[in-house]
Design goal:
CATH superfamily of the largest domain: Metal-dependent hydrolases
Number of helices: 12
Radius of gyration: 21 Å
Strand content: 15-25%
Oligomer: single chain
Number of domains: 2
CATH topology of the largest domain: TIM Barrel
Shape: globular
Structural class: alpha/beta
CATH architecture of the largest domain: Alpha-Beta Barrel
Helix content: 25-40%
Distance between the termini: 14 Å
Largest sheet: 8 strands, mixed
């Protein structure tokens, strides 16, 4: 449906939401005249937000298309109001130009603006460097670790020295695997009560410090994914003061929950990095307010139902979020930082981080938007989730807002 009339909606224009109006949309354009043969949507005062850009997309295909497929991911993006995202699959490292070319061909037909992270090591093993300069010349946005940084400090330096010649940004999930060991929750009071092995904050902060110092030494731009505690944010602030180009994000669920939800032993809360203490959660919100945190990431990681419907400690870590991210976080986020900053964190900044340094960026001439009613609660039912997976901590729960639909690449998707 490429002809849509949105009645009584508040569009975001020139930095703020406008009074109620009617939007006539044809082939991705907002036209002034009335249009025939269009579907009419009553907004009832809903917000017509700019569509979002997701950090942390992993659709698993081709290696694990038994879990999820590209088409499942595209459907989830439309339902959640995302026009684009940064793709990095833990199952499918992009470590040579042949793999990059194959996934570029797939994404070119999707209608979404999808940037791709290349792996800086072969198969994410941190034993042999990938073809970084070739990957950079063929269009990767930057270099990532597949959310599994298993590098010695020497290998980290070699990778960053080689990658620096491309001027691309490095993306790291800072987590020391030896300190993580068999841990699956935050090391603290809750872990002690539950009798579970914990992951201490220093498993993150030690790696953050090492990455920042190496990047400062080599003058390499970096992005730190899924920061979980105040100590890491302090290190990032100090590195910026010393002149380092460093950006960072925090995960959606780390803003919504802390480790006190673990007492129910719901395996949907088995996430890596783990949910930390209420004090850590508050520190992340403070980081958003102070501008230390640049973006909120989705970290959309599909997991099979049978791999979640087990004991908490045996469950595969990860959660999907594309369909629920906006209605789950919007109202609380606006209360903390305001509407403009909320859109920076969910849409504008993620796109800048993901697309910085690309020689050829797709220019957004079309209007891509998502229609959100911030006053209407909704329930996260299985039917709104794409594919066969249901691994979200919000499953069957009520969230504060409701997505009415999205208009992306000239197509209306009713939710």
């Amino acid at each position: 449906m490429n002809k849509v009339i949105l009645k009584n909606v508040r569009p975001f224009v020139q930095g703020s939401f406008q009074p109620l109006t009617t939007m006539n949309l044809v082939d991705g354009r907002w036209v002034g005249e009335s249009i025939e043969g269009a579907i009419e949507i009553e907004g009832n005062g809903a917000l017509a937000l700019p569509a979002l850009f997701a950090l942390g997309l992993d659709f698993q295909e081709p290696l694990r298309d038994d879990i999820y497929t590209f088409q499942n991911g595209y459907t989830a993006m439309r339902r959640g109001g995302f026009y684009g995202g940064l793709y990095e699959s833990s199952a499918n490292p992009i470590d040579d130009v042949q793999k990059l070319s194959a996934i570029q061909q797939v994404f070119s037909k999707s209608g979404f603006q999808l940037s791709i992270l290349g792996s800086f090591s072969k198969s994410y093993k941190c034993e042999q460097l990938a073809e970084m300069l070739e990957l950079a010349s063929c269009g990767v946005s930057g270099f990532g670790d597949g959310n599994h940084l298993n590098a010695t400090t020497r290998f980290l330096r070699l990778a960053m020295e080689y990658g620096a010649m491309s001027s691309k940004r490095f993306f790291f999930l800072p987590l020391d695997l030896s300190l993580r060991s068999a841990g699956c929750v935050h090391e603290g009071d809750v872990a002690d009560v539950l009798g579970m092995k914990g992951i201490p904050r220093i498993a993150e902060t030690i790696v953050v410090h090492t990455i920042l110092e190496t990047a400062l030494f080599l003058k390499v731009p970096i992005h730190l994914k899924q920061i979980t505690c105040a100590e890491s944010l302090n290190l990032i602030e100090q590195a910026r003061a010393r002149g380092l180009d460093v950006t960072c994000d925090v995960g959606l669920y780390h803003l919504l929950f802390d480790d006190h939800v673990l007492f129910d032993l719901d395996s949907h809360f088995n996430l890596i990095p783990p949910l930390r203490s209420p004090q850590d959660k508050q520190a992340l919100w403070d980081g958003l307010k102070r501008g230390v945190v640049d973006a909120i990431s989705c970290n959309h990681t599909p997991v099979l139902r049978q791999e979640k419907e087990v004991n908490f400690e045996d469950a595969v870590a990860g959660a999907i979020s594309l369909e629920v991210a906006l209605p789950a976080i919007w109202s609380t986020l606006v209360d903390h930082v305001g509407e403009r900053r909320a859109l920076d964190l969910l849409s504008f900044n993620p796109a800048k981080i993901a697309c910085a340094g690309l020689q050829k960026m797709e220019k957004r001439s079309n209007i891509d938007l998502v229609l959100l009613d911030p006053r209407e609660p909704s329930v996260v039912s299985p039917k709104i989730l794409s594919g066969a997976v249901q691994n979200t901590p919000l499953l069957n729960n009520q969230i504060p807002s409701a997505i009415k639909g999205s208009y992306i690449q000239g197509l209306w998707t009713q939710v």
